Amino acid sequence: MNILGIETSCDETAVSICQNGKIISSIVDSQQSHSEFGGVVPEIASRMHEKLLLNTMSTCLNNALMSKKELDAVAVTVGPGLMGALLTGVSFAKGLSVGLDIPLIAINHMEAHLFSNFIEYPDLKFPFLCLLVSGGHTQIWNVNDFRDYQLLGDTRDDAAGEAFDKGARLLGLSYPGGVEIEKKSKNGNPHKYKFPIALSKSDKIEFSFSGLKSSLLRFTQKYDGKIPKDILPDVASSYQFAIIDALLNKLKLAVEKTKINTIVIGGGVAANCSLREKTSFFFKNSKVLYPSLKLCTDNAAMIAFLGEKLFKKGIKSNISVGVYPNLKLDDFLD
Ligand code: KG4
Ligand code: ZN
């Protein structure tokens, strides 16, 4: 069985093929045009997807030594994400579905992040806790079973990825901010500066990162908005420390409350090595899993993989399926 996956929810144009649970080809074209703007420009993202999709798909098929005719279904992200960007992928997928006369499978991008862990850990068993951390999400879910998800905690304001991206901008670093802050942190002292860790005393599982960002803004203002090069690694490292500590504090609460001791991390921020190492260290008595780096940030392998899983369960979508910029993990479309 060959399932083509298409991902265009933000600034990665990605196509992949999943064949009987194995990813046999995966291409991610990361759009470079946004870095000069310090963030994703929705209009540019849509235009770039439109321009890149056909070639990305051809390269993906060539890599797999496969023709379009061998595809059994096409899976595509329908949300959450940028409206225009989603529309380009969904329209393209609908064209393939009609042209090749194969089923269309609508994919929830967050559910795909969640399931990306099963690509490398097929023996992963329910229930488990999932820390979903991306550019738009910071949530802890109790994953009881397939499509039995309970939200344990969310962010009141910014997502962790957003805190990285906005922080990077304040520090004069480029987009995506998480990668840049992580790089700069390497030679820094995480305890040099104290940035606030919001809600650390509360026993509720919830996050807030807007105060942290404001605190960094005030810090940069002391230097007229330009952090001196010699202290940049310490500032970046201390800022990263505050984000990760907030995540670990609440993950600890979730483990205590649920007594579930398998922890899975998903989403772009899961690519952060410090977060990965600290989670494994902090939760020594739990099983901690995270996808390999290329499966953390946006990709189509996770779309094709979940597409195959849904297809096998007989879950398909109508050709009139829409796009859902604010889709939640537990909004099921079928
Ligand atoms: O999952 P993703 O690629 O896209 C969304 O679904 O949002 O996540 C993107 C986010 C961005 O905010 C980016 O700064 C962050 O993931 N990110 C990282 C790292 N790599 C990407 N954050 C921290 N450390 C990283 N190494
Ligand atoms: Zn994502």
Summarize the structure.
The chain has 334 residues and is an alpha/beta fold. It has helices at 42-63, 83-100, 109-120, 160-170, 177-185, 210-221, 232-258, 273-282, 293-296, 301-312; strands at 2-7, 12-19, 22-30, 73-79, 104-108, 128-133, 138-145, 148-155, 206-207, 262-266, 287-289.
Kindly report the name of the CATH homologous superfamily of the largest domain: ATPase, nucleotide binding domain
| Structural shape | globular
The proportion of strand residues reads 15-25%
- Roughly how much helix do the residues carry, as a percent range? 40-55%
Mean pLDDT: 97
Give the second-level CATH assignment, the architecture of the largest domain.
Answer: 2-Layer Sandwich
List the helices and strands and how they pair.
Layout: E1 2-7, E2 12-19, E3 22-30, H1 42-63, E4 73-79, H2 83-100, E5 104-108, H3 109-120, E6 128-133, E7 138-145, E8 148-155, H4 160-170, H5 177-185, E9 206-207, H6 210-221, H7 232-258, E10 262-266, H8 273-282, E11 287-289, H9 293-296, H10 301-312
Parallel strand pairs: 1-4, 4-5, 6-10, 8-9, 10-11
Antiparallel strand pairs: 1-2, 2-3, 6-7, 7-8
The protein binds 5'-O-[(R)-(carboxyoxy)(hydroxy)phosphoryl]adenosine (KG4) and zinc ion (ZN).
Zinc ion is lined by residues 109, 113, 134, 267-268, 298.
